[in-house]
Amino acid sequence: ATRVFSGVQPTGHLTLGNYLGAVRRWVDEEQYRANALFCVVDLHALTVEHDPARVRRLSRQAATLLLAAGLDPERCTVFVQSHVDEHVRLSYLMECTAGVGEMRRMVQFKEKAAREEAAGVRLSLLTYPALMAADILAYGTDEVPVGEDQAQHVELTRDLAVRFNRRYGRVFVVPRASVPPVAARVMDLQDPRSKMGKTAALRNGGAGVVHLLDEPDAVRRKVMRAVTDGGTDVVYDRDERPGVANLLDVLAACRGDGDPAGLAEAYGSYGALKRDTAEAVVELLRPVRERHAELAADPGYVDGVLRAGAERARGMARPRVDAAYEAVGLLPVG
Ligand code: ATP
Ligand code: MG
Description:
Strand content: 5-15%
Number of domains: 2
Bound molecules: adenosine-5'-triphosphate, magnesium ion
Helix content: 40-55%
Catalytic activity: tRNA(Trp) + L-tryptophan + ATP = L-tryptophyl-tRNA(Trp) + AMP + diphosphate + H(+)
Number of strands: 7
Enzyme class: ligase
Protein name: Tryptophan--tRNA ligase
Shape: globular
Largest sheet: 3 strands, parallel
Radius of gyration: 20 Å
CATH superfamily of the largest domain: HUPs
CATH topology of the largest domain: Rossmann fold
Strand order of the largest sheet: 1-2-3
GO molecular function, one term: ATP binding
Structural class: mainly alpha
Low-confidence stretches: none
Order of helices and strands: EHEHEHHHHEHEEEHHHHH
Distance between the termini: 34 Å
CATH architecture of the largest domain: 3-Layer(aba) Sandwich
EC number: 6.1.1.2
């Protein structure tokens, strides 16, 4: 059986990028694998400046959205990272396995550290990949379904698992990342050379970021105003024509069709491409938004799912984390 783990940070409202890059596959495919776990990774949200009340609100909202999108708590485990102590326990051993140099080389660290400079770069932003490795390795995960931007962190997780196993004996499964064939990196509609991101939504007043809970008219407005490139013909070229390529990726992903370049041939103008993309996104998000409204009316239900999920996750993580503690030479509780 394939063990699956993945997560989403409560750093902002979930975006179309999160959905197409990650969440949709969790719902459509990954939750049917044995013992899949999906986590609101709230500890990671503390690596940057944040408002406590907002993180708490966004954590519940993210969990509610995962259920609204179709994760079935009878099939998979949905939980909040900070509810399961094993993540932090194992994170320390990962910090003892990783080197400072490899942490500094992470692209996400470089990008977010540059943004955080005014507020002060937190040490946890540098060590973030150690906690992420712990998230994944604690469960004996085989496969980590993520967007392309997280592939480097999963690669580091593999290195840490291999290194730990070589030093102390085989404790961890060596996981692999899986990224979707299309829309693995959805770009900001106003700045198609940057990734669409929850945090990036604060730039441009969020005009380039589609949120899962945006009203249909807001979605249409954002897509219709997307920055396209010089030229008028519709061609698929991610380097030279990133704005148009992004719309083609999104439309292909919405249609469940893996061929954005083929789609380009069907369009003679940007206007038609934008209109079809806007409608496709509106229809994609409609059921998620509707179901979210229902579930949000019953926070007790969501809390119950998270409580049960944390309990199950704890039971799955504890034996392996205990084994790792013993393997490195820590004295077990007698
Ligand atoms: P932040 O800006 O706080 O990092 P984010 O939007 O990048 O937020 P994460 O919680 O870091 O969201 O990532 C959750 C999942 O969504 C990960 O699997 C990540 O790879 C994926 N993802 C994030 N942004 C995109 C995107 N633009 N396109 C495709 N996948 C994405
Ligand atoms: Mg991110």
